[in-house]
Amino acid sequence: MRDSQPVSLESLLESGTKDNNTLKSIQQRAVVLLKLNRAVLALLPAMLKPHCRVANYRKQLLILEVSNAAQMTRLRYELPALRSALRREILPSLSAIDIKINPSLMKSSATGLPGGDKSSNSDSREQKTAEPGRKLSAESANSLKALAQRSPEKLRKKLEKLAALAGESTSAAD
């Protein structure tokens, strides 16, 4: 009969089989990268922190991910200072820093969720409907009507149609 007693994850990681050693090495690598990420974020300016993370470190090459090209440019300006600080404090063997763009970081910084993933598609739909729609004010509608009177026929019809939307929601969610 099989032993069906629960086993702690720690004891599985400490056991000596080849498969578990692989799992243990992956866990240790993840912990090292998390510590390195914290150290790098501590050295970055505040405006870059939500848009940057450590992706990997191998063969004396540190790979950083940023959310977009604008943040990549900002990080490039900070690169010499960051490289020298990392060499001085943490990674004396660091030879280069490579920067990659990862758009999912943009989602992560916007939603506040780690990894940028929403919990489900229904949550994103709820968020879209919760956003207030744009409305056309009565004053804007009157301005459009006045402009329509002085416009060619084709444009006049479109401006009058737009002015008729005054007070109605014009968001895409409706």
Oligomeric status of the shown chains? single chain
Distance between the termini: 61 Å
Q: What's the pLDDT, averaged over the residues?
A: 80
Shape: elongated
Largest sheet entry: 3 strands, mixed
Give the percentage of residues in beta strands: 5-15%
- Uncertain regions spanning at least 5 consecutive residues: 113-130, 170-174
Radius of gyration: 27 Å
The count of helical stretches stands at 7
Number of strands: 3
What are the secondary-structure elements, in order, as H or E?
A: HHEEHEHHHH
Instruction: Record the strand order, biggest sheet.
Output: 1-2-3
What percent of residues adopt helix (DSSP H or I)? Answer: 40-55%
Given the helix and strand composition, which structural class is it? mainly alpha
Summarize the structure.
54% of the residues lie in helices and 11% in strands. It is mostly helical and 174 residues long. β2, α3 and β3 form a beta-alpha-beta unit.
What would you say this structure looks like, in words?
By secondary structure, the chain is mostly helical. Helix content is 54%, strand content 11%. It has a 3-stranded mixed β-sheet. Helix 6 (138-149) packs antiparallel against helix 7 (153-163). The termini are far apart. Residues 113-130 and 170-174 have low confidence and may be disordered.
